[in-house]
């Protein structure tokens, strides 16, 4: 009886390891995501940030274009550095 339980547990472990290896193989081929979630699109990562900073140093006038792109990317959720909202508030309401 004890040998049967040990055999079933060992068989279950072997099956789980084999399933894990098959899933890892499928993940390497790009069919599924296994153990690791896909990366979110970051738009270029650290190198893009360095190049943006370099461009601002070389061409200070391009800063407003970069800020506009960031606002569009964030969906106009950013607050200006001076803390004021862009839209005037109506005090009549």
What ranges have pLDDT less than 50 throughout 5 or more consecutive residues? none
Q: What profile does the largest beta sheet have? A: none
Q: Structural class from helices and strands? A: mainly alpha
Strand elements, count: 0
How many DSSP helices? 3
What percentage of residues falls in helices of 4 or more residues? 55-70%
Anisotropy-based shape = elongated
H/E element order: HHH
Radius of gyration: 27 Å
- Average pLDDT, all residues: 78
Q: N-to-C terminal Cα separation, in Å?
A: 81 Å
Strand-residue proportion: under 5%
Report on this model:
The structure is a single chain. With 93 residues, the protein is mainly α. Among the domains are: 1-33; 45-74, no CATH class. 57% of the residues lie in helices and 0% in strands. The protein is built from three helices and no strands. The protein has helices at residues 2-28, 45-58, 63-74. The radius of gyration is 27 Å and the shape is elongated. The chain starts with a helix and ends in a 19-residue tail after the last helix. 0% of the residues are buried.
């Amino acid at each position: 009886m004890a040998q049967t339980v040990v055999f079933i547990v060992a068989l279950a472990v072997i099956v789980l390891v084999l399933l894990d290896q098959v899933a890892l193989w499928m993940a390497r081929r790009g069919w599924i995501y296994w153990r690791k979630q896909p990366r979110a699109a970051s738009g270029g990562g650290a190198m893009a940030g360095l190049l943006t900073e370099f461009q601002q140093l070389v061409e200070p006038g391009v800063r407003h274009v970069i800020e506009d792109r960031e606002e569009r990317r964030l969906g106009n959720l950013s607050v200006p550095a001076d803390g004021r909202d862009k839209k005037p508030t109506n005090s009549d309401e």
